[in-house]
Amino acid sequence: MKTRTWQTATVDSLVDETATVRTISLSVPDWAGHRAGQHLDVRLTAEDGYRAERSYSIASAPGEPVAITVERLDDGEVSPYLTEELRVGDEIEMRGPIGGYFVWEPAISGAGPLLLLAGGSGVVPLRAMLRHRSRVGSSVPVRLLYSARSWADVIYRSELARLGDGVQVIYTLTPEQPSGWTGYARRVDQAMIAEVAWPAAQAPLVYVCGPTSFVEAVATDLVALGYPAAQVKTERFGATGAP
Ligand SMILES: Cc1cc2nc3c(=O)[nH]c(=O)nc-3n(C[C@H](O)[C@H](O)[C@H](O)COP(=O)(O)OP(=O)(O)OC[C@H]3O[C@@H](n4cnc5c(N)ncnc54)[C@H](O)[C@@H]3O)c2cc1C
Question: Is residue 42 in contact with ligand 1, taking CB distance under 6 Å?
């Protein structure tokens, strides 16, 4: 099966999103297409044969060239290489697309509102969903609550500012805010979700993505607010990353 087969992808372009985050666009010869919210695996092999494998959400919409957005963890094994060493024209091993649960398809998911909650680089698969929504001309109302460490750490900042009709982006910046900041300045909590989100009775479809601690805290808050667990989809990036 293609998703389970390792293949060689070539780096087409590199875009610095923030000081520590880079988007890598890939040319993949044998790509079966992907859905918004899926991920892929990257495998690096050292000269002595040592291998390291990591998962990365697909940042691009279905129909767009495959792209991932990687946050550098200074003491990490794989992300410093992907964000600092990799050059256009280099080849990397990857396999995918992977995952069928954390995906959003307007045709299947219906016209109900969409609530997206991101912690740090957890915004990556949600960006694929937002792009997909625009590309297919969906009018599903969307609210994205995005928690970042500071304004400078907001990934896709200019793209998120241009989303337009039907999409609201609400930021919470913690621990650092620019001077004059009037938005949220604390970790996402139940009160914040209640203010930002549609009431559970309106049955929004909810996607939560980010570091494991962020996802677990937010999912607990959502359930406490009465959102049915079946309406809440979560993706955990592990014990790494931002807020
Ligand atoms: C489905 C999925 C999608 C993901 N999507 C993205 C994405 O879109 N963008 C993104 O940036 N990341 C994403 N991730 C996270 C990504 O897979 C990596 O975990 C991340 O890039 C860190 O990898 P690394 O090799 O640089 O760090 P690692 O070497 O894995 O280290 C991570 C952290 O753990 C610590 N650590 C490592 N080993 C130990 C140890 N033995 N004891 C204690 N601490 C240790 C390190 O100090 C470091 O802080 C995703 C993860 C999943 C599961």
Answer: no
